[in-house]
Design a protein that fits this description.
The relative contact order is 0.17. Helix content is about 20%, strand content about 35%. Helix 2 crosses helix 3. The longest helix is centred in the middle third of the chain and has 9 residues. It has about 190 residues and is an alpha/beta fold. It is globular and about 40 Å long. The chain has a single domain, classed as Class I glutamine amidotransferase (GATase) domain (Rossmann fold, 3-Layer(aba) Sandwich), CATH 3.40.50. A nine-stranded mixed beta sheet has the order 2-1-3-4-11-10-9-6-7, covered by helices on one side.
Length: about 190
Amino acid sequence: MNILLVNNHTKHLKYLNKALAGHNVEVVMYQPGVQFNYRDKDLIVLSGGGGEGLEIDDKVQSGKLWYEDEMKFILKCDKPILGICMGFEVIARSFGSQVKQMETGLLEGFHKISTTKRGKEVFDKDRLRQYEAHEWSVEYIDPEEFEVLAASHTGIEIIKHKKRPILATQFHPEKGGTLSLPRLLTI
């Protein structure tokens, strides 16, 4: 599979590379104004962030959001997209959801996640155990656009677009857990 990996300055790049081994992966470090060469790609993966402290609400000198160009790309891209953590948040924001900083601060480590009725149909599991490393959450996403497949006490954990090939996780499947990144590539 030909994959474009948009690196949102992730701290977990070595885990992503290991999880995507065997695929032809082109990595592009995200920054405002970057051009995405995706026409010959089968899948776009939007990584997590955290490597340089750039969060979903950060802005550039012009006053636009740091991730604004990535949000525009998501809305026009006609290829399958898999978003991870920051990628999840950018996808959610692209479709008008509020992404907010959690009062509890950074959540890090393996945590339990509950699947929804639809999530149980997709994953054949009631509960998941996944690695999380985030301090932002999505508590609501437009049900006309997305199915929520899993949630936790911090918010929504997995979304799937109803009409477009977009899937996103708040957690880090590249770090292991019940749902591995290779498993998510098959959904």
